[in-house]
Design brief:
single chain, 308 residues, alpha/beta, eleven-stranded mixed beta sheet
């Protein structure tokens, strides 16, 4: 066990050794990566992240607290203050991420006073100023979204999964998430016309075109940027758990076996479970003691790290 606490006269964490876990530090006071791997660390991520060595994480994948939602669960983050709250965290995430790494941020802005809040848009712009590249926006379609009726909108059936990197060249393994083409191809590709055997430009002048013959004898295709996944029905004691297939999809896309995945808001441990199933290493950080306990049980994590 490793006990990490703060002194009264310094913001720098003081690391106290307990025999079961080594606590050697580097010249900047950071912990060895091996001490942190495959652990659920209880503490505020702003206190824990500075302990992690620079440029050692292959993928950051997280769903931070909702703005103005589930205050009893998280304590709440005001939507108007969300960007200011998140930017210092993002700066630490940028430091620990490898140059070839990716950062996936699962987030969705709520409706407040009758309109969608703009903090996610504002956060994207500020992260770009911080030096992040906004590569893509994946859409998680929640197939079993919560039923309800509102006077000026319909059910909220999707969430953003924003993809950021430190560089425009980054690790990505697209073949790992390819999907079956489907039975439609058998009839469509049985008898190709001459047009099908060459690039057929769009008739509306859009510049888009296709060569249908390229699909012959192909069983798999690249997916779209829309992920059709049900929400987690058994919430594992957590009010906003996402399904394990969501982190698994991104882990397969952006990492290889034994790569390191960080979730600074790991909640009930779903990202860690996904890493175990895919033979990846993980670092999980969670402020809530009850969620830490749930996460540790799910991953069989007997060594507990706590930032007091």
């Amino acid at each position: 066990m490793r006990d990490v606490s703060k002194s009264n006269d310094s913001k720098k964490p003081i690391v106290h050794s307990v025999p079961s876990l080594p606590v050697d530090e580097d010249s900047e006071g950071r912990s060895p990566l091996t001490d942190l791997l495959d652990k659920i660390i209880q503490g505020d991520c702003l206190d824990v992240l500075p302990l992690i060595p620079s440029e050692c994480v292959d993928l950051i994948l997280t769903s931070p607290p909702y703005a103005n939602k589930r205050n009893k669960t998280y304590g709440g983050v005001n939507a108007d203050q969300y960007v200011t709250w998140f930017l210092p965290i993002a700066a630490e995430l940028q430091r620990v991420l490898k140059p070839t790494g990716s950062f996936i941020l699962n987030i969705k802005e709520p409706a407040i006073n009758g309109e969608r809040h703009t903090f996610v848009i504002e956060l994207i712009l500020e992260l770009r100023k911080q030096g992040w590249f906004w590569i893509e926006e994946y859409c998680w379609h929640k197939k079993n979204c919560y039923p309800g009726k509102w006077p000026n909108r319909f059910r909220d059936a999707w969430e953003r999964c924003l993809h950021f990197t430190k560089n425009k060249q980054f690790a990505m393994y697209q073949e790992a998430v390819m999907v079956p083409m489907g039975d439609w191809r058998h009839q469509r590709l049985r008898n190709l016309s001459e047009t099908d055997k060459q690039r057929d430009n769009s008739k509306v002048g859009s510049g888009f075109g296709k060569n249908v013959s390229n699909w012959v004898e192909r069983d798999m295709a690249y997916p779209t940027n829309v992920l059709h996944l049900a929400t987690e029905c058994s919430n594992r004691g957590h009010s906003a758990a996402f399904p394990v297939e969501l982190p698994k999809w991104f882990i397969k896309l952006f990492t290889l076996s034994n790569n390191v995945v960080l979730d600074p808001f790991i909640g009930s441990g779903t990202t860690a479970v996904a890493c175990q199933e895919l033979n990846r290493r993980f670092i999980g950080v969670e402020l809530n003691a009850e969620y830490c306990s749930i996460a540790r049980k799910r991953v069989g994590n007997s060594t507990q790290l706590t930032l007091w």
